[in-house]
Amino acid sequence: MPAANKLLDEAGLKRGGDGTRFSLRLRHVASLETFAKTAQILKENFADVGVRVDIIAAETTTTLTAIFVNSDFDVAVYSAPMGPEPGLALTQYLSSQGLTKAFFSNAPGYQNLKVDQLIGDSVATTDQAKRAVIYKQIQQMIMADLPVIPLWEPRFLTAYRTEFQNVFLQPDDRYINFTRTWHQSR
Q1: CA neighbours closer than 13 Å in the CB half-sphere of residue 100
Q2: Domain ranges of the chain
Q3: Rounded to an integer, what distance in angstroms lies between the CA atom of residue 97 and that of residue 74?
Q4: What is the C-alpha to C-alpha distance for residues 54 and 61, in angstroms, rounded to an integer?
Q5: Three-state DSSP string of 100-117
Q6: Helix (H) or strand (E) holding 64
Q7: How far apart are CA 119 and CA 94, in angstroms?
Q8: Each residue of 149-186: pLDDT tens digit?
Q9: What pTM was estimated for this model as a whole?
Q10: 47: three-class secondary structure by DSSP
Q11: 1, 29, 48, 176: which is deepest, by most CB within 10 A?
């Protein structure tokens, strides 16, 4: 943490008499254990560089309204799954089109016209190699600007008994559809 302390000092954010530089409000959904644990780790990591974190854990609707509708947070722990088509999720979470104040939209208020253009190019391009190049450019720009910091990628594990047929599997349960799944009788 010496480098982080040095950068904060150089930015004029010196520690006060109590060792604290400033405070942040961190919001998360209280019922999600992974988010609660992540919030606690972040609080401890921020404390190492003299930043006090006040964790605000609440039920889902209160938290999502504070984050996405009211922009009432300094830091938030929430999920932003990309799903099977990154262009759609990137539009939702990190483009100017996502500035809707709706749940699971562009909560940080990120705007970068070049990223917007590249996201548009990604969904209009069918060549997989060209799309890969575009997504790499998007990732590099987002990681340079840091409107969000990806902390982990969840694993979506699904298992079904063999007597079920036509099970639609996706890595993100938002897209699972059981309307065409059937049980094979013995």
Answers
A1: 11
A2: 1-78, 80-151, 155-186
A3: 22
A4: 19
A5: CCCCCCCCCCCCCHHHHH
A6: helix 60-64
A7: 9
A8: 999 876 666 666 777 776 665 555 544 556 666 677 75
A9: 0.80
A10: helix
A11: 29
